[in-house]
Predict the structure.
Amino acid sequence: MRVRRSGGRVIWYECFGFGLILFLSWLNKLVDLPHLLVGGEAHASKWRDSAIETLLILLIWAFVISITKRLVERLTYLEGLLRICAWCRRVGHDGKWMRLEDYFAEGLQIGTTHGVCPDCLNKFEEDTRMFQQARAQSQSSATEKPRPERISVAS
């Protein structure tokens, strides 16, 4: 799946970005980057401030990574769903709607064949049996000749 592969990359990019932020934070404390880049007077660094800054960056990193993992899992789940029309049973894929058999042939390179599941087979047999009984009843009632009624004539 596309999301699963790209989701792992997103997490690696985030980890790399937060690692770069930590690296630049500590580099700034070690060599005083603003003094080197733009000049001015040197700034005394406090190691306690650096440790708190690192802790805050790591807490933010953990929060962002946990949210990203949840989003990637959700996207993977949603991408795994197959859109099927409720009316005609066609499959929506890549902006077009096609028969299920065509989707399998095109998207998955899987051939299809038709069969009948046991539940449908039982329903079909029951429907056939009921149809044959109804037909037999209608034929038997049609073959019976109606008897003429006797009319008594009173004299």
User: Anything to note?
Assistant: Strands lie at 83-84, 91-93, 96-98. The chain has a mean pLDDT of 80.
